[in-house]
Fold this protein.
Amino acid sequence: MPLPLIYHEDYSPEFPADHRFPMDKFRLLRDHLVDSGLTRDADLLRPQICPNDILALAHDRSYIERYMCGELSREDQRRLGLPWNEALARRTVRAVGGSILAAEQALEHGLACHLAGGTHHAHYDYPAGFCIFNDLAIISQYLLQSGRVNRVLIFDCDVHQGDGTARILHDTPEAITVSLHCEKNFPARKAESDWDIPLPKGMGDADYLQVVDDTLNYLLPLYQPDLVLYDAGVDVHKDDALGYLQLTDAGVAARDERVMRHCLGRDIPVVGVIGGGYSKDRHALARRHGILHHSAQRVWDLHGCH
């Protein structure tokens, strides 16, 4: 069977072309993966909308209702940095459904990847940094509370700290939060993850990959999770508009492959979400995000996950 990849047409609604958030990158990523021969559109798995009861496993119900009705306060709108409309609200809950479906596919087949996800700045009762609902926290609570897993490890390699995830899951010891991030970057006020690995500005491929190897070689045997949620943010790339690290395309590909091979080599299922990535060249950005899925395909073929 093909590598499970999750996508929906709702992911790229109409959006201001000059906005700093690249809303069209999800559609362009799908186009890139199809055009490059990695997948066919008909093989992409389409998710359902995530119901409010599942969102509420990690979020305040009144916050969920305020957002879905377009009634966020001015302060919350400022924190979020996105406009509101019904299509964007639908996109938001559809994408959470996509991350859940990807996690379920990973549990069944060993490996799966989403063409969206990684909204790690969303907090329990407010949005932040382009993130509305925190799919990593929601997946964790959903799978833990349903008994599908006993322990989950979130390995967040987005260049920005996963502050929302850390705060939401602070009192959930079965969900291990790990964040590799550029120390001098958003958010200015960091949360406390279970494991924070702050990185200096300008770090390149070799040093970064050594940190990835050392971290996983220590933490995976220590915790032996039933599932790893991997946030494969490409804002670590040297050409990213909002990151301060210096990874190349080859470095990002090596990172993604190593994370997945570390997990699968220990028989730990892993799900990849795309996380952050920012560039005015949206086609280049889509190709950069696609490194995750091409890397996953190589690992899928190597490990014979089916």
Observations:
- The first strand starts at residue 5 and ends at 6.
